[in-house]
Amino acid sequence: MKIKVLYEDSNILAINKPSGILVHPVPEQARYGTGPDKTILEIFRKKFPKLEVVHRLDRETSGVMLLAKNKKAHEFLKKQFSAPALEIAKRGLADKANRVKKTYVAIVNGFVKLDHGFVNKPIGRSPKDFRRHLAGRGARGTMREAITEYKVLKRFTAKKEKYTYLEIYPKTGRTHQIRVHMKFLNHPVACDSLYNPGKPCPAAFSRLALHAKFIEFKNLKGRTIKVESPLPPEFKKVL
After folding, report:
1. Catalytic residue among 9, 58, 95, 115, which?
2. Is 58 assigned a catalytic role?
3. DSSP-assigned states of every residue in 207-226
4. Is 5-238 in CATH node 3.30.2350.10?
């Protein structure tokens, strides 16, 4: 499988991850019908043996993703994803911080009322399903603070069903954060089989309606790099 490289230097790769591909091998991989050589990590390690994953995108999420070609780059990039993010978000200083900035787009069910908003709700585990995370009442285990900002780009109706097209800016990087916070708002991401099963799905989609559109980071030379992933065809068709 050919995967497009959006940015490359001697230390870092930014790729355009397709939907449906695992980032790295996992125990339940056989469930998806793919072998180890079909993961992002295995594909790119053929050329870069010391390659490391810097951050994850869920199997069905598409878009821009960073990979480190060596240990030094991995440690350097991980620092931009790490601890200060929450305090930076609380103080509104993200644009001044030496940390990664991410933008996603998503189609969610229903009309989101506010044109712009924040979800500041800790995330824990679901007591009913070990695969799921949960924000708000009923969450179990360690509660990790999480902040997600969103902006409405468009509200539309398809086959009498209401949807909202959002631009989303996660200020922290919790597992399934966008999916969990949208579920908390009662506007789950469309076509999400884990958090939104059985709900209406735009006709063009057979996958989670979530795409990592943009990322900004610093490379090892201190230069600010901005990388954008094109909008997938199914999004363009619906919108």
Report:
1. 58
2. yes
3. S-SEEEEEEEEE-TTS-EEE
4. yes
